[in-house]
Specification:
Two copies of one chain form a homodimer. Chain A contains 13 helices and 23 strands. By secondary structure, chain A is α+β, with helices and mostly antiparallel strands. The first copy, chain A, has two domains: 315 residues, Bira Bifunctional Protein, Domain 2 (BirA Bifunctional Protein, domain 2, 2-Layer Sandwich); 94 residues, Anticodon-binding domain (Rossmann fold). In chain A, strands 3, 7, 8, 9, 10, 11, 12, 13 and 16 form a nine-stranded mixed β-sheet that branches. Chain A has a five-stranded mixed β-sheet with strand order 20-19-21-22-23, with helices on both faces. In chain A, a hairpin with a 5-residue loop joins strand 5 and strand 6. In chain A, helix 2 packs across helix 9. The two termini of chain A are 21 Å apart. At the A-B interface, strand 1, strand 2, helix 2, strand 3 and strand 4 of A face strand 1, strand 2, helix 2, strand 3 and strand 4 of B.
């Protein structure tokens, strides 16, 4: 891809309404643009990162045996009346009427729709266990949307739902999904923690949250310094009748092993054991060997769009975004430093571009008619890990300059040594 | 994938509300299930086909130089007031208020949002031409949704928008997009026609429709029997002040070459030259060499979910769906005909399954505890092109039976010859 064909949309000014670093950088680097409060366009660079997140999730979900489906964004509220959640959810559930004055809502989650689907198609216990998932657009009418896509109203989630015949089956489906989540977070390459959590408005018993660690995180997490014990500090405060989560620091860990440490995190994943809450309220029954059974359900969410903001909160510097290798929108950018529009410089760029593209390197060529400084600033803002600078000096020594985003020093190599050099860097 | 892990959801009964063959077959083959009028769940088999359609479209859009973005489903109606379309669109535009009583709508199309985006980010004529696209969920509040996903309310579209500095530039962008469409329809492997069309409610001048031919199509298309001339018959009737489109059959072609033939089609793609309708009404201006310019826009849609229904209308028989190679949910199904649950039969199935999977054949293994006849009926209904039947006889002669969906005769081959045989078939 050449930047001359790309809607780069970088900007220098900080957007006035952006309070968090990730919100600022996502606007400045041209990843997103606001359409209305809490509603965003994903621009080409942002969409590319979003697709990478989705593919990392999809791959592990498929490997785990979960099956991809697609449920609608517009849901009949009659299903939410059946489950009894229509009152509980409050105004975050955006309800409206269609042209025939039938009542619908924009789905913030899909427990009701999936349970309705399963009661219509699953007839026999032999069809269970089953885990279904989707990667889909959701809407939650936040009273005060903020922090860009971190707390937006329209957002992309992966949500999965498991159906089992027994609590033991649910334990197994839950473990399988937790394993898939561990792989997903490992593959994302971000620093994260799993903590015990409150199951909140969705209902059910066991639940764990996946947090990406960041000093700017809204959640306080408490860990033992000498065991695996980890819990959302808010939940621990509740369990222990404490007042201030910050007072937990240094106290003995509830598991009796070591003392508590506190860190801040951003919740990007949540897995629950729902039990029979929805199967009973929506009357999803399957024929078992000894009569009808209400399946035990689990539900498993990942905030796909939120992961991107959380990744940036965790990894950035004063120049811009620092991507984990898994998420960078391009692996390499060729900066054409060619103010006098020399044919020879353009030719070298072309040659290097073809070399990289034909070797499956995801490469961007910054061929804009701009000063080199502007290009460096833009590419560091977007956070492309490796820059190959081709300018006047390249025509003299027949070498290109390679600069790694996170290193100060640069190195000059011959075009034919670029691939070797790139493999050493990554 | 094994069917024992798959939400197959096939059924024998014809759904009572399904008037068209594609609607009937999509329900019976377990591709979709209705959630509410005109709103559907895509089940695993259907979602797999949908992903194939999306990937065929995405590949050609990317090759054409168009850039993928993602715009929101929820749009502020203020943009529709600016364009003046809010009245024109009528009740198909589903309008509602959020919790703060601000007015929004569910996007049936995105001319307003993309024009708003471009007026915010494009500053200079040097950033044009540009073509942006998305594959996204849309909503149109049809008064009478019917025919399954053919005329649903929530649906998946690829919509693209081009921005040029001059009408000549628009001609070029339009041609590029038409070329991409030709590739997409070629790769889908369906019989289709391009016809001149009315530009309708979206506004603008030139427009062409892409129709998948099917006797059940709602649109009548008129072609010359001796030239490339082709037009939507409704438009020709209007142009010629005729009454009945059917009366056109056999009349001289308006291009003076030959006589008209009529065929029925299903519109699945539409490309328009919009001109400056939206750039002027929404005040998208860019700095040109001689002052400000309102860009010339084009817009280009493909009904991704609709293509699947149209494909089935074109290709099916009394047994079920007939997929073009590009869209089949699985290439091969292994039917385990094993009523006595013999270990040796299961082992042969496993062996063949591993062989195919490791050679990148997209294979399904029907390992359900069902009679062979039930499995044959299901797999022909779903339309899997090749069946490999492994049963009692296989343990005797160490061969498997290969049956092609569209042929009566079967053939017995040794497991080690399967790959060779498959390559001969396809």
């Amino acid at each position: 891809m050449k930047t001359s064909n790309l809607l780069l949309a970088t900007q220098r000014e900080n957007p006035s309404d952006a309070e968090t670093v990730s919100h600022q950088l996502m606007i400045k680097a041209g990843l997103i643009r606001q359409v209305a409060a809490g509603i965003y366009n994903w621009l080409p660079t942002g969409k590319k990162v979003l697709r990478k997140v989705e593919e990392i999730i999809r791959k592990e979900m498929d490997s785990s045996g979960a099956q991809e489906i697609l449920m609608p964004m517009v849901q009949p509220t009659s299903l939410w009346e059946e489950s009894g959640r229509i009152q509980q959810y409050g105004k975050e559930l955006l309800v409206f009427q269609d042209r025939h004055e039938r009542s619908f809502c924009l789905g913030p989650t899909h427990e009701e729709v999936i349970t309705d689907l399963c009661r219509n198609v699953i007839k026999s216990h032999r069809e269970l266990p089953i885990t279904l998932y989707q990667i889909q657009t959701k809407f939650r009418d936040e009273i005060r949307p903020r922090f860009g896509v971190m707390r937006s109203r329209e957002f992309i989630m992966k949500d999965a739902y498991s159906f089992d015949l027994s609590p033991e089956g649910l334990d197994k489906s839950y473990s399988t999904m937790k394993e898939a989540y561990l792989n997903i977070f490992h593959n994302l390459g971000l620093e994260y923690r799993i903590v015990k959590a409150d199951s909140g408005a969705i209902g059910g018993s066991d639940s764990e949250e996946f947090h990406i660690l960041a000093d700017s995180g809204e959640d306080l997490l408490a860990f033992s310094d000498s065991s695996d014990y980890a819990i959302n500090a808010e939940l621990l405060v509740e369990l222990q009748d404490e007042q201030d989560p910050n007072s937990l620091e240094g106290k003995p860990s509830p598991d009796g092993k070591g003392n508590l440490l506190l860190k801040k995190g951003i919740e990007v994943g949540h897995i629950f054991k729902l039990g029979r809450k929805y199967s009973e309220s929506l009357k999803l029954r399957v024929q078992g060997d000894d009569g009808d059974v209400y399946p035990e359900m689990g539900c498993y969410g990942i905030g796909a769009s939120r992961i991107i903001a959380a990744s940036i909160e965790q990894n950035h510097d004063e120049k811009g975004i620092i991507w984990p290798k898994s998420l960078c929108p391009y692996e390499v950018v060729i900066v054409e430093a060619n103010p006098k529009k020399k044919e020879s410089i353009k030719n070298t760029c072309e040659e290097v571009y073809e070399l990289l593209a034909s070797n499956n390197v995801d490469v961007l060529w910054d061929d804009r008619d701009k000063r080199p400084g502007v290009k460096f600033t833009d590419m560091e803002l977007i956070g492309i890990p490796i820059m190959i600078i081709i300018g006047d000096k390249s025509t003299e020594d027949n070498k290109v300059e390679i600069k790694v985003r996170l290193e100060e020093k640069t190195e000059r190599v011959s075009p034919q040594d670029i691939l070797q050099k790139l493999s050493e860097i990554s």
